[in-house]
Specification:
Helices cover about 0% and strands about 40% of the residues. The protein is mainly β. It has one domain (about 15-80).
Length: about 80
């Protein structure tokens, strides 16, 4: 089967630049303000590692900074994908 593949501007993580995001990675959960994105790296400002989420339910007005247990990190955090 052939599929038409095209590039659409401002989709995916790029559309979330400047917003608070939560990234569920292989072992840890990171949260912070998304300030950079490229092909294989994201950059978070005011980054935190989430050690305990509490109940996973959507509550109106809840933001990632309200995780049950998180630890702030100084500066910013860069996450890169591993080569496969």
């Amino acid at each position: 089967m052939k599929v038409l593949v095209g590039e659409v501007d401002n989709e995916g993580l790029v559309s979330l630049l400047g917003k608070s995001v939560t990234l569920w990675c292989g072992i840890y959960i990171y949260t912070g303000k998304l300030i950079g994105v490229n092909d294989d790296t994201v950059k978070l400002a005011d980054a935190k590692i989430v050690y305990e989420t509490g109940p996973l339910m959507i509550i109106s007005g809840r933001t990632p900074s309200l995780w049950k247990l998180n630890v702030g990190m100084s500066g910013w955090l860069r996450l890169s994908r591993l080569a496969s």
